[in-house]
Structures are given as C-alpha cells and as structure tokens.
Amino acid sequence: MIYCRSCGKQLHESARFCPQCGFNFQPVEAPSPSIWMAVTALVLSILTLLLLLATFGDMDTLNTLSQLESAFGSHSLKKKLAEDAANSAAGGLVFGLPAGVLGIVSLMQKRGGRGMGIASLVIGGINLLLILGLFGLSLE
C-alpha cells in the first residue's frame, strides 16, 4: 500500500489518482516545443531574399538600358527603374518585417527551432540592406 502525497489517504500501489482528493500520480508530460514560428520566419526570409535578388538582377538590366536610352535623350526607363525599385523595396518590407518579428518572437519563447530563428534574423539583416539599396536606387 502507498499513501497519497496530497491528502495522506492509503491507496493501492496501482492507483493512478487519489479517489479522495483527486491527486494525479502520473507525471504530466511537457508539451513538445513547437517550431512553426521559426519555420515560418525562415521561409518568409528566404522568399524575401529571392524576391530582392531577382529585383536587383532586373535593376541591373534596366539600368543598362536606361543608360543607353539617356544617350538618345529619353528618360522613361529611368522612371520605370525608380518605380520598380520602390515597389520591390516595399514588397520586401511586407514580407521581411513579419519574418523578422516571427524570428525574434521564436527566439524569445525559447522553443524549438532556435537555429532557424537565428538564420531568419541573419537573412532578414541581409534583406534590410538590399531594401535600403533599392530605396537608394529609387531616389536617383
């Protein structure tokens, strides 16, 4: 026979809980750490990086065409270059900011996926530099 740790009632050894006070003798399992936030942050960061890198490739092509066009006295491509740069920078912010917030929150909660949260913040820093570069292009 065993005794309840809560109320002291004598119980059978196979008892799972105390019938008098309801104390549970089974250990409570801790919930497994969820990594969905870190995964989401990493995916958004990578998508933002791909969007911005593709935009920079297009910007290089448009810049070359703009230089050729300005040699002939027209500036319509330069305006398109500035508009595309501003739109891509805004799109990068739309995806990049939630990725950064999710990465920070996943690190602060100390759950699983710590490496993914750190990776999303590093990629987010690179994205921020690319966004600043695109805003610089849009102001030229």
From TrEMBL:
Keywords of this entry: Membrane, Transmembrane, Transmembrane helix
Regions crossing the membrane:
35-56, 85-105, 117-139
The UniProt entry, under Pfam families, shows: Zn_Ribbon_1 (PF13240)
Q: Which domain of life is it from?
A: Bacteria
Where the record annotates domain Zinc-ribbon, the positions are: 3-23
Q: Does the keyword Transmembrane helix apply?
A: yes
Q: Does the keyword Membrane apply?
A: yes
Instruction: Name the chain's protein.
Output: Zinc ribbon domain-containing protein
Give the source lineage, highest ranks first.
Bacteria, Pseudomonadati, Pseudomonadota, Betaproteobacteria, Nitrosomonadales
